[in-house]
Write a structure and sequence with these properties.
It is a single chain. This protein is 49% helix and 12% strand. The chain folds into 2 domains: 218 residues, Glucose-6-phosphate isomerase like protein, domain 1 (Rossmann fold); 174 residues, Glucose-6-phosphate isomerase like protein, domain 1 (Rossmann fold, 3-Layer(aba) Sandwich), CATH 3.40.50. By secondary structure, the chain is α/β, with parallel strands linked by helices. The chain is globular. 42% of the residues are buried. Strand 9, helix 16 and strand 10 form a beta-alpha-beta unit. The structure holds 5-phosphoarabinonic acid (PA5). The site of 5-phosphoarabinonic acid has 14 residues, from loops.
Length: 444
């Protein structure tokens, strides 16, 4: 299936694009020869083509056993340990999954520390059969650790220690971290997050694949889609004829010209979490050394009635990347009415998707006229295969873009700052000096 990148409305000249030709080639060299910053986190590059058949079969088998005994499957994780799975699941499941009766329903925990959220989740789990995956590469992240401690007690109280253990899957480091030790002691089914794959690049490891398989989604088709774009990048690691490179270069030129905010736009609400995944991938990979494009997202036409005004007329530091879906999965036409009191007969008989496409085109033209350059990534449909293509497309473009920006795209040192403060404020052992300094600052 062909993805198409159209950047006519980014108004970047051919010459300006071509001036990045050698930079792109040398960036791919840096990636494939593993010579750049963070090169010990490049495991995702070969992941689609090198994933073991026995691992896929094992994940499918685990999912098949757990699906039979679960009304609900709880995915406990935060950041890269849940966003990839959620992006794919929400893109492919029924919009009204909680009401559709499809089982198991996938729900999420450990991505916030809301007491009310967990309380209400427990009230639901009291009445339902469930199983869960606890996902943390480091095995020490506070948010999922708290959620798991609480839900672990709940599942043991509900089913007894032995059955509870058979309903828990741990996905973590092969040796390090509290979660690994816990999983060993309790005998949970465990999957490994490869050492050389960082959280936000881990959707095609068990981190994403198990929850996705639990939702009844075809993980083999997802991987096949990713393989296609992996092959493209490896067979043509240049600027010409490679849409991954083109996207990376266009956004780099945008950034250099002062367009420091990129808005991912979709016209399909099923893609909301795909944008969330993309925001983490780009925000956490590039936002460092006081550099990087700020990634934002909107869902149109919903947000045309909220953020549309700002995009049309606000500060001109924006550009948009529109994910344009060619074909809907279902067909629905606007009915004709004799009276035409709502004056919609002029579009009677036409598909909703046609109206949506016209809204997309009209919006692009309006935003371009308002000084917002637009990149369009056209995808034929929202399916497993295409999502696999998109995942690898954005991962590789993120790496290429990051190296062009001269940052290490694979670390996230800034995430530690809030954690240190939180631990000090909670009085964690080892943080005494920081606690004192913060208390002084806060006048406590
Ligand atoms: O991309 C990343 O590395 C982060 O977003 C992590 O996925 C996130 O912080 C969760 O970390 P962990 O899986 O160690 O619990």
């Amino acid at each position: 299936m062909k993805l198409e990148l159209n950047h006519t409305f980014s108004f970047i000249s051919k010459e300006s694009m071509q001036s990045y030709e050698s930079k792109v080639a040398s960036t791919y060299n840096t990636i494939f020869n593993r010579t750049g910053a963070g090169n010990d986190f490049l495991g995702w590059v070969n992941l689609p083509s090198e994933i073991d058949e026995s691992l896929i079969a094992d994940i499918e088998q685990t999912a098949s056993v757990l699906r039979k005994k679960s009304d609900i499957f709880v995915v406990i994780g935060i950041g890269g340990s849940y966003l990839g799975a959620r992006a794919v699941i929400e893109a492919l499941q029924n919009h009204f999954a909680p009401l559709s009766g499809e089982k198991p329903l996938i729900v999420y925990a450990g991505h916030n520390m809301s007491e009310d959220y967990l309380h209400e989740l427990i009230a639901v789990l009291d009445k339902k059969d469930y199983s869960m995956a606890v996902i943390s590469k480091s095995g020490t992240t506070t948010e999922p650790a708290i959620a798991f401690r609480i839900l672990k007690q709940h599942i043991i109280n509900k089913y007894g220690e032995q059955e509870a253990s058979s309903r828990i899957v741990a996905i973590t480091d092969k040796a390090k971290g509290a979660l690994k030790q816990l999983a060993n002691v309790k005998g949970y089914k465990t999957y490994i997050v490869p050492d050389d794959v960082g959280g936000r690049f881990s959707v095609l490891t068990p981190v994403g694949l198990l929850p996705i398989a639990m939702a009844g989604i075809d993980i083999r088709a997802l991987i096949k889609g990713a393989i296609e774009i992996e092959k493209l990048c490896k067979s043509n690691p240049t600027l010409n004829g490679n849409i991954v490179s083109e996207y990376a270069v266009v956004r780099h030129i945008m950034y250099e010209s002062g367009k420091t905010n990129e808005i991912m736009v979709n016209y399909e609400p099923r893609l909301v979490y795909f944008s969330e995944w993309w925001k983490q991938l780009y925000g956490e990979s590039h936002g460092k050394d006081h550099k990087g494009i700020f990634p934002a997202s909107v869902t149109f036409s919903t947000d045309l009635h909220s953020m549309g005004q700002y995009i049309q007329d606000g500060l001109r530091n924006l550009f948009e990347t529109v994910i344009s879906v060619e074909n809907s999965n279902h067909e629905l036409c606007i009915p004709m009415e004799d009276e035409d009191l709502d004056q919609l007969n002029y579009i009677a008989g036409r598909r909703i998707s046609e109206v949506n496409h016209k809204a997309e085109l009209g919006t692009i033209l309006a935003h371009v006229d308002g000084g917002v350059p637009v990149i369009r990534l056209v995808i034929p449909e929202v399916s497993e295969y295409v999502l696999g293509q998109l995942i690898y497309f954005f991962e590789m473009a993120c790496a290429v873009s990051g190296y062009m920006l001269e940052v290490n795209p694979f670390d996230q040192p800034g995430v530690e700052a809030y954690k240190k403060n939180m631990f000090a404020l909670l009085g964690k052992k080892g943080y005494e000096e920081k606690t004192e300094a913060l208390n002084k600052r806060l006048g406590i």
